[in-house]
């Protein structure tokens, strides 16, 4: 693995960690009837290669599982993101 591969791996892990944490934070705030994380923000982090963390957060915290944008959209984003990462690993590493 070269430096670019490590950078991509670290960035991917960090974005997914943030998406996971935001799901947990929003669930906690929902229970306390406090200020919430906007759905656009959650979906944006998922769309920016954080779908795996967002989906894991949805399952762990049982949060946003009934919203179609999340229950259908986030898994679809994850499939696309994993396909793109696979294409990069197979073809993009010059």
UniProtKB/TrEMBL annotation:
<feature type="transmembrane region" description="Helical">
    <location>
        <begin position="42"/>
        <end position="61"/>
    </location>
</feature>
<protein>
    <submittedName>
        <fullName>DUF1294 domain-containing protein</fullName>
    </submittedName>
</protein>
<feature type="transmembrane region" description="Helical">
    <location>
        <begin position="6"/>
        <end position="22"/>
    </location>
</feature>
<dbReference type="InterPro" id="IPR010718">
    <property type="entry name" value="DUF1294"/>
</dbReference>
<dbReference type="Pfam" id="PF06961">
    <property type="entry name" value="DUF1294"/>
</dbReference>
<keyword id="KW-1133">Transmembrane helix</keyword>
<feature type="transmembrane region" description="Helical">
    <location>
        <begin position="67"/>
        <end position="91"/>
    </location>
</feature>
<keyword id="KW-0812">Transmembrane</keyword>
<keyword id="KW-0472">Membrane</keyword>
């Amino acid at each position: 693995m070269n430096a670019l591969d490590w950078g991509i791996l670290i960035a991917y892990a960090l974005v997914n960690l943030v998406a996971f944490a935001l799901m947990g934070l929003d669930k906690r705030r929902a229970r306390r009837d406090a200020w919430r994380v906007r759905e656009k923000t959650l979906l944006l982090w998922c769309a920016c290669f954080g779908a795996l963390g967002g989906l894991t957060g949805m399952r762990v915290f049982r949060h946003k599982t009934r919203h179609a944008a999340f229950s259908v959209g986030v898994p679809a984003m994850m499939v696309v993101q994993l396909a793109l990462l696979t294409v990069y690993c197979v073809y993009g590493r010059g």
